[in-house]
Design goal:
This protein is of the alpha/beta class. Helices cover 31% and strands 27% of the residues. The strands form eight sheets. The chain has a five-stranded antiparallel sheet, covered by helices on one side. Strands 19-18-17-22-23 form a five-stranded parallel sheet, with helices on both faces.
């Protein structure tokens, strides 16, 4: 979650706004800072500057670009800004504001400096549902009053940052929470319903919307969402119905968590949060690759047992894509172009599971007999001959994070597991 603060002066109602909090060096503070509204640069009579690490910009011109109305009460030194159905009030030397009558804490006091009032643009953006982003490379604060998102079904235009989000894909529940956005409603998880254990605490109060394969449309309507997120592979046939309820975005692939997080971050105005997560991810991936050494050449097999007395090995998939990014080797017998997994129909094919390391992602998300099949197959003499089994490198891992969830936090948990199992 992100916060900020602000204030104004009487006659000209010329005032400054704290746009975004970014660490800046002395040289960066001296460099010119630009502000755009819907991609059009705003002109100021006073140049933007950095105060105590916060980018401050003259805001009177910005307000007119946003179509907001300003008034200043010189008697109690209170600034009132109205746009659409939102009204915010701030007071000089106060660290609190009100949004439609509700008190909101600011990150710093509203101050007056050199005849100008310093106001937090980030806070104003959130109060009015605007997208506010800082681009460090060209020192630009970009404010968008609407945003068009490209997704699996085309383009959808949002006219305000969504506050009531409905999520119809398990991986996107994880991603939304990773970005700091709790859905007002979401489909149930495949196991541990209504939500996976690692998400339950953060999903308190959210409405269950039934199965990912058949979400409850009536329940979605009742929530009055301002954004719905689904998946083309799951919900293509009901896209028209959902779009009539609220602006709707569809992801293309269920487990492409990086692409899916990028779509959500753009809609949620959480691109900074997503970038911070990815910076941490890339750093950990680089650390793993630097320290894994010769163990990277050991072939890794991902297996799963099913309740129909069969099994499968995964070629790609959610966990497989992480192994690939880490540069870990996979058994040649398990590599088949265009396939996510290879089915193994009989115990005679157990040797296809072979690897120097085996990760088992068996889940009880069907009848509950999957673990009985797992136990039966592992009594076969062929199982004991597998390299990983002989070398005690067979590991049962969390099927939720390794397979079923498909979100950003789940990916990080898989990465943490790999650090543990590779003793890094």
């Amino acid at each position: 979650m992100i916060k900020s603060r602000f204030r104004a002066i009487a006659l000209s109602l010329s005032f400054l706004v704290a746009a975004v909090s970014v660490p800046v060096s002395a040289s960066a503070a001296a460099a010119p800072i630009k502000v755009t509204v819907d991609s059009k640069q705003v002109s100021f009579d006073v140049q933007p500057k950095v105060i105590n690490g916060t980018t401050m910009v003259p805001y009177s011109a910005v307000v007119s670009k946003l179509g907001a109305k300003l008034s200043f009460n010189s008697q109690n030194k209170t600034l009132k800004v109205t746009r659409g159905n939102a009204t915010i009030q701030l007071k000089i030397n106060s660290s609190q504001a009100t949004v439609n009558g509700k008190t909101v804490a600011l990150s710093a006091k509203v101050v007056e400096q050199n005849g100008r009032t310093l106001v937090p643009l980030r806070f104003l953006g959130e109060a009015f549902g605007l997208w506010v982003n800082w681009n460090a490379s060209n020192k630009t604060v970009a404010i968008d009053t609407k945003r068009t998102i490209s997704h699996a079904m085309g383009n959808t235009t949002l006219t305000a940052v969504p506050k009531r989000v409905v999520v119809l894909v398990n991986g996107m529940i994880d991603i939304s929470l990773t970005l700091g956005v709790k859905p007002v409603g979401a489909v149930e998880s495949w196991v541990q319903a209504p939500w996976y254990d690692y998400l339950k605490k953060d999903m308190t109060g959210a409405k269950s919307l039934g199965s990912e394969l058949q979400p409850n449309l009536e329940a979605i309507v009742a929530l009055k969402p301002d954004l719905i997120i689904g998946a083309k592979t799951r919900h293509e046939k009901i896209y028209g119905q959902l779009s009539k309820i609220a602006p709707t975005l569809y992801v293309d692939q269920l487990f492409e968590w990086k692409d899916n997080m990028a779509v959500a971050a753009k809609a949620f105005n959480k691109e900074d949060t997503a970038q911070s997560f990815m910076n941490d991810w890339n750093k950990k991936v680089a650390t793993f690759k630097a320290k894994v050494g010769s163990d990277a050449k050991k072939e890794v097999s991902i297996v799963r047992f099913s309740d129909d007395n069969s099994a499968r090995v995964y070629v790609t998939g959610f966990a497989g894509s992480i192994l690939s990014e880490l540069g870990l080797s996979r058994p040649k017998a398990q590599t088949e172009a265009g396939k996510i997994f290879i089915d193994i129909d009989s115990q005679e094919q157990i040797p296809l599971m072979n690897g120097d390391i085996i990760f088992d992602i068996t889940s009880d998300n069907r009848s509950g007999d999957e673990f009985k099949v797992q136990e039966a197959w592992q009594k076969n003499a062929l199982w004991s001959k597998l390299t990983a089994v002989k070398d005690k490198k067979y590991y049962k891992v969390n099927d939720v994070t390794w397979s079923l969830s498909g979100g950003a936090t789940a990916a990080k948990m898989v990465l943490d597991d790999l650090f543990f199992y590779y003793d890094i």
